[in-house]
Each structure stands twice: as C-alpha cells, then as structure tokens.
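for the record, two folds in this file. i put them one after another cuz i was lazy. first one right below, seq on top, structure tokens after. the second one comes after a little note so u can tell where it starts
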Amino acid sequence: MKKLALSIALGLNIVALPTFSATEVATLTDFFSDKGEVTTEKNYAIYETARQYLKVQEKVGVNNFEHKRVLTPTDQQPVVRMNRDTYYSMAVVNVSQGATITLPQIPEGKYMSMEVITEDHRIQAMQYGSGTFDLSTHAGDHVYVIVRTDATFTEDEVHAIQDKMTIDAKASAEFKAPQVQKGPFEKVEKELKAEMPTILKRDGAQATAGMFTDPQDESKELFTEEKYAVGAAIGWGGAQLQDNIYEVSGNFPADTCHQATFEDPENQAFWSVTVYNKQGFMFNDVANVSSNTATKNADGTYTVSFGCGDDAPNNIATKNDSGVFNLAFRHYMPSQKMRDGFRVLPLVKAVK
C-alpha cells in the first residue's frame, strides 16, 4: 500500500510529515532524483534511515539477512563511524502482520546483541544472547535490525552462527520511500555533522545523550530534536545509552602523538576505541583497540596510544590524507561506573 503520509513520534510529540508527492522507490539505486523531496534538518533522519533501509533491501530483499562475513573492511563502510568491534548482520523486516527473529546459542561470555531501528530512526533497547524475539514498531510497517556478534569469534565460527539466524515474518511487502534530491540531502548532512563540535564543547560527557532514543520507553526523556538530527548524521543506528555509551571526540592533529591512561571501565561486555579520519571513516586495517585485545599496565590500568609509533603501548596509527583524526570510545553493556559519569575521552592528551 502506498504511504500517503507518515506520522512520526518525535520525543513526546507526534509530527505528521507532509503528503509525499515524489515517486516512491524500493531500491537505493532509484533513491536520489532531481525531482525528489528536499531534505531539511527536520526530515534528514527520516531520509537517511530510508537510505539505509533501501541499501540492505536492494542487496537481499525484505525479511532476509545481509551477513557481513568479515570485520568491516575500509573499502566497505556504508555509514560513518563503523567499527571492527563486532561482526554485523542486518535485515529489513516487514512487521505489519507480526514478525520474529531467532538467534542461536553462543558460548557463555561471548557477546551477541540485536538492535531494532524504526523508520523514523528511533532506537529500541537491545536484546542479548540467544532466543526468539518479537519485532514491532510505532511508525510504518518495517524495521531495520542489526545483530552484532563478538569479534573474538573466528570467521568460520561466526559464519556458523550467522547461518543459524532466522526471520519469520507474516508479511513480505517491500519497504518504499520517496525519492530525495541528492544535493540538499548532502548539504544538510554536512551541516549536521558540523554541529557536533559545538555539542561536544557544550555537553561534554553527555554529548550523545538524546541522540538514540525510543518514544515508547524511558529513554524518550533524553530526546531533543537537535540531538536526534545530529545523531543520525554522525552515527546512524547508534544504540541507547543503557546498551552502549559513546564518547566521540573532535579532531586531533594526525602528526602529534596522543595518549590516554585510564582505569578499567568494568563494563559488562567490553570497551573499544576506534580511530577515524575527518570524514568519520576508518582508514587503516588496524583501526581500533579494545579490552579484548589491549595489554594492561602492571597496575591494572590501560594506556592507549594514538600516532605514537609501534613501540608505544596499544598504539593505533593516525596518519591519513585528511591530516586529522578523531576517536570514538564505545562501552558495550556499560558498567555502573560509566553510567555514573566516568569517561575516558577527557584523558586523551598530546604527548610532547
């Protein structure tokens, strides 16, 4: 059925988008058009979400998994600030008549999570481990599902796990979205990304609070339209704070050594830090360090180095064509220490 209008829940308010006049499409190839809708800061998150839905749907159709069989290669980064912390499996699922996803058993102590992203880029709380999970949405007929599986599995091990993931959906109609003009879309995206340094300076450790929320749970209390729009631009598909705490930096000069020494965050799963170029993309095969790979100091703390040479503890190279680098610390299943305000990013300092 053609969507004539879509009511989107933003925070506590219901905002009705205008009737779509542009042609509706089911593939990414057809998404951008000179005759399409014009992107604004208010609708950017909707259109970026549509773009991500169509990207997966064009590859594997609806109600099917697109499994990433290797950790994210540098030449295959569909969104900004991807990482190599986990293997990814994605799907667009029609939930209009009911749908479930079943995830297989994995060894105790390993990480596997399922995240649901609705058509208006609202983020439901994660589900963890094996089981059969019901899928639902407050907006539209489809959801986007991301399953993240522990990077410490070998490729053969993760392939066996991925092959046992199943989707049971009662409806099979494809997701469709209006065509969008490419120029205004890219302009707004660039402007939203440029707002992040101001938010970082203003909000510090709470910079990402309110970006990734669900209007149907308590996370809605953090929602702001500003954070909602910027979040979709700098890290589409980010998780709720209860599931992942993100620390995203501004830019550092790539020719200067930086280090951080910090206490163990004691997360329930793990922490990681990934290095990106100015545009927000990984540029080296070794782009991250995590608590699964880092060597601890004798006193139990960690030191992570950025652009300090191979002899520096837990070093990640930073030299790249953009001349700067930025960081994203991720805390998977964050500890109470993290929830109480402990942060690593302020400890990153230039080393003379």
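(here's the note) second protein begins now
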Amino acid sequence: MQNLFANLPNSLPAELTTVLAESAHIRIERIVSTGNSSPAGYWYDQDEHEWVVLLTGEASLRFEEGETLIMKPGDAVLIPAHRRHRVDSTALDQPTVWLAVFYSS
C-alpha cells in the first residue's frame, strides 16, 4: 500500500517524480513540486497524452498557444500528445502534489 501524501519534502531543488505503476502503454507518476517551475524558455513536448490532477498545493500551467490554467486541488486536465506546455509556478508555502497518467493511443 502507498500513501500519496507520505514523506512529502518541504523543499526541493527540482520536481520529485516517482513512478507508481507502468506498462508498455501507460505510466502513472506522483510528482511533487515545492515552488518549482519549468526552466525559462522550456516547453514540454511529449509523445504521450497526459492526464494530470492536482491533489494538493497550487500551480500555474501554461500552453504555448497562450492559454493559462490556475490549478487548485481537484483540478484535472488532459494534455494531448505534442501540445506544448510548461509549469509557470507552484505553491511556495506547501508541497504541490500531482498525479499524472501518461498513455499512448
């Protein structure tokens, strides 16, 4: 058994990603951020679709075409493969915990 909120760090130099389960077609990750963001000018451009839900904290997720989502606990979004996006910010006062499901069609 795992608890997604166990052993959350208070400070990290970079996001902490833990693979919870995976197969040839799907990968489920817990991602923990503590005020982290994507490097300046960097855009994620993934071969897989990503469904992500924010469990704790807060985050600003921006898409290359200009849309910005301010995510709070319980907010979820499906990011199609190759839709370029970045994390502009995450909460500074508490860990931000994401659950991300990556899959191919």
